[in-house]
TrEMBL record:
It is found in: Endosome membrane; Golgi apparatus membrane. This is Transmembrane 9 superfamily member. It comes from Arabidopsis suecica (Swedish thale-cress). Residues 1-20 form the signal peptide. Its main location: membrane.
Amino acid sequence: MFGVYRVFVLLVFVSQLCNGFYLPGSYMHTYSDGDSIFAKVNSLTSIETELPFSYYSLPYCKPLEGIKKSAENLGELLMGDQIDNSAYRFRMRTNESLYLCTTSPLNEHEVKLLKQRTRELYQVNMILDNLPALRFAKQNGVTIQWTGYPVGYSPPNSNDDYIINHLKFKVLVHEYEGNVMEVIGTGEEGMGVISEADKKKALGYEIVGFEVVPCSVKYDPVKMTKLHMYDPVPSVNCPLELDKAQIIKEHERITFTYEVEFVKSETRWPSRWDAYLKMEGARVHWFSILNSLMVIFFLAGIVFVIFLRTVRRDLTKYEELDKEAQAQMNEELSGWKLVVGDVFREPEMSKLLCIMVGDGVRITGMAVVTIVFAALGFMSPASRGMLLTGMIILYLFLGIAAGYAGVRLWRTVKGTSEGWRSLSWSIACFFPGIAFVILTVLNFLLWSSNSTGAIPISLYFELLALWFCISVPLTLFGGFLGTRAEAIQFPVRTNQIPREIPERKYPSWLLVLGAGTLPFGTLFIELFFIFSSIWLGRFYYVFGFLLIVLLLLVVVCAEVSVVLTYMHLCVEDWRWWWKAFYASGSVALYVFAYSINYLVFDLQSLSGPVSAMLYIGYSLLMAIAIMLATGTIGFLTSFYFVHYLFSSVKID
C-alpha cells in the first residue's frame, strides 16, 4: 500500500511539472523595477583570424569588485570561450546614461594591440541574461544582423583607427503575468522550478532582447576624470564626423560611457531566441535542401530496386538448377559465384580494419544520439558548449560499443579471441590519439599567439584522465563482452589456395573513389551552413533537417557500399573488405576538398598562416571522423549482405 502511495505522489508531481516544460534555454529570470543586472563579456573573436582573445587583453574598464570568471563547461573551454563579469550595470526599467572610466594614457603596446584588433575585425561579445548583444548594420543597402560589436573601425582611405567607446543599449523586456506555470531550465544557471511559493517573486519583467549601437565619441579627459563610475553623463548621438570620434594613438586617454533604454516587448521569454535564429546571414534555404533530398531519395530508390532485382534473379536462377547444371554453369559463367571459396578470406591488415570499424561504430553512435537530442531541443544555442560537452560524454561511454564491435569482428575474421586485449587498447587509443596529436600541434600555435582558444594545461590533464580512466576501461569491458558474444559463422569454407583475380582494364580504386560522390551529394548543401556556423559565428539551429540528412547519408552509404561490393564480386575480385569500407568512407575526401574550397572562396578574409593551419587542422580531424563513421556503415552493411548472399547459395 505504501508503494502505491509513493507512485501516486510521484505521478502528481510529474503531472504538475508537465504544465510548462520548456527544454531549450536557461532558467527564466524575472526582475523587479530597479533590480541591478550586470552584463558579461565573452572572448573577442574575429572571422579573419579565428583566434579568440580575452576581453581584458585590451584596455577596457574593469568592474569595481574585480574580474571574476564564470563557471564554464567542458565544451565552452574547448571552444575558447572565456566569460567574465563586466563593469556594465543596468537597472531594470531605468533609462540612464552613465560614465564608466577613463584609461591612463595609451602606451605604444596598447596602441599597437588596439590597431591590430581593429584591423583584424575583432568583435566584442557581450551577454545579458544569457542573450548575446545583437547589432544591426547596413551592407549594400540591406540590413544585416550580427552578434557583438567591433572593437573599432578604420575609415576607408585613412591610416587612422578609431575605438568604440560609447555603447547605446536597448533592452527589450516582457511583463511576466505570473500564471500557474512551472519552468524547468537546462542552461548555465542549472535546474530550477518556479513553484507556487515563488509566484510573487516571479511577478516582474523578463529580458527578451538585447541590442547595441556602437559609437566612437571624443571626450575631454580632464573633465571626465573628475567623475566616478556610474555617474550620470549627458546622452550623446553617434557622431558622423571623424574629428568628433576617439582616435587610437599614443598618449590618448580613452573615456568609456554607455546609455541604456528599456523598451516593452510583446515577445515572450520562450521565443526570445527567434531573433537570433532568423538572422539573414544564417537563413537556411529550405526549398533547396528539400529539392536535393527528393532527388537523392529518387536516385537511391532506383539503385536499390535495380540491385534487388538483379541479385534476386541470379539467386533464383542458380537455385533452380540441379547439381550437374550448377557445375556446368560454374564452368561456363564467371561472377560472384566463383569466389565462394575466397570471399571470406582474411583481409590484409585485418587488425587495423577491426580498429577502424570499432571507432567508426562509436563515432556514428555519438553523432546519431547527439543530433537526435539537439533536434528535440536539449542543446539550444542558449546552452553554450552543451553540444560539444554532450558529444564528448557520449564518445566516452560508447567505448563499450566500440570494443564490442571491434573484438567481435576480430573473432569472426581470426576464429579466435586471442589478442583481444591488445585490440581493445588500440581501439581506445586510435582516433583519440589522432585527435590528441592534431589538437596538441594546434594548441602550440594558439599558445604562441596568446589566444584564449588554447587549451589550459589543467584541462589537458582532465582530458587525459577522462580518456584513460573512463574511455579505455569501458572499451576493454566492451571487448570482453565481444569475446563472450556468439561468433559469426561463415556460411562457406575458405580454400587453402587463393583464387587468382582476373586483370582489369582500370584500377579498382577509381571506382572506390568515385563511389563517394553520391554520399557527398547528401551533405554538401548542409556543409555550407555547418561551416558558416563554425567559422563565421552564425547560429546553426536546423538540427531536424540535419537529422534527416544524417539518416539519408546512412542509407546512401549502405547502398553505395553494397553495390560496389557486388560489382567487385561479379568480376571475381574477392578482396572486398577494404573496398567496402572505403567505398562509402571516400566521402571524407570530398568533404576535406570542400573545406579547402570553402577556405579559398568563402573565407577570403581569413588572414595569416596560423589561422589557415587551425582551419586545415580542424577540417582534417572532421574528415577523419567522417571517414571512420561512413566507412563503418558501408562495411558492416556489405558484410551482412555478403554473408546473406552466400548463405542463400547451395554449396556442395
